[in-house]
Design goal:
The protein contains 20 helices and no strands. With 404 residues, it is mostly helical. Among the domains are: 75 residues, Tetracycline Repressor, domain 2, CATH 1.10.357; 154 residues, Tetracycline Repressor, domain 2 (Orthogonal Bundle). Helix 4 packs parallel to helix 7 and helix 16 crosses helix 17.
Length: 404
Amino acid sequence: MPPRAKQAKASNKGRGNPEAAERLLTAAVELFSKKWYGTVSVAEMCRAAGLSNGVFYRYYDDKEALFKVILGRILDQVREALERVDGETPRERLRSYAEAIVRFSEEHADLVSVFREGQYRYFEYERRLVAIYMRSLGAALGREIGLAEYLFALGGLRFCAINWAFNAAPVQLEAVCGILTDGLFRGLDFDPDKVFGGTATPLPVALEEGARERLLRSGRRLFGDKGFFETNVHEVTDGAQLSVGAFYTYFDSKEAFYGELIAKVGHDARAFIAGNLAAPGAAPLNALEFELRGLWLWLIYLSIDKYCYNIVREAEFVLPAAVRDYYAAFAAGYRKRPARLRVTSAAPGVDEGTAIEYLMGLAHYFGMETAFDGSPVDARVLVETIGRYLARGLSEFLSREELT
């Protein structure tokens, strides 16, 4: 779990020239959007702003205080963007809402990048963003919404928008709006016993580990607890009770080691889910049941592997190519499904790439709730409710409002 942030003494001391404070903010956004928080120093921000180190402390107590000011401003900008959502009907407002989120991500990739780190480091800002999204979605639909509606609608939408910002993968807005309004698994229902029944078999544990496996296990724990930058090779080898020389026998560098660790984290998650998708003795699953059981197993896996999210999120700045491979491997798993279990078999008009991206986003943000906040008191109820939206979308919200 990421360390809980200490309370900043003050976000802005308010002394001196406000223009200098803004120059520091601008420089900080530029640096934080390209580098990991832990690697950016106050001196580096001041050099980028063309100011002395002493000037920094006229306005901010420390780097954390400045970072939190940036996060707060991002929240304000998102709120302002969503206040411009318009339309005569809920359906029109929902489309405007989706367009606003996609456009914000496209136009402010630097802010999105900064917030992606902030949401893990200081989870209260992610919680505040979720509240903004829920209020604005409720306003678009004309009624109050809950966490299940948020996860169904915003999980996929946020993920698609971020992918556009970072990987130049344009959002297929018509397809996304179709998912929001009508779902992905149209005409299907699910049997809760098939989704949640049976037992989950853990991944096999080697009775005797080799040196390479011991190093990876040590690194997984240390990088998960402390992070990549705060962990050195000596600590990894000490944890594995091996010499530093042994480390370099198997890995060329700390970065190469980290890349293999990311790949292993993804492999283990996929292996656990794939190995438990078919409940022993249960009847075959339909496409919706298959998806929901996979989502449920993903949440169970995160309760077992507490390091998964920390390791992958930090790699977004350290080894972005490895993270792209991590998600690409999950997407490849979707494409290998039998035809009857493919999402496009139940959602005509939605291209497979968008459907896969949307479902990965749903799993990602649901997993984040589980891994970092623990707020879903009854995850099973949420999975069941999300299942109904995956089958029918938000059409019931839209039709009821439009008929009144």
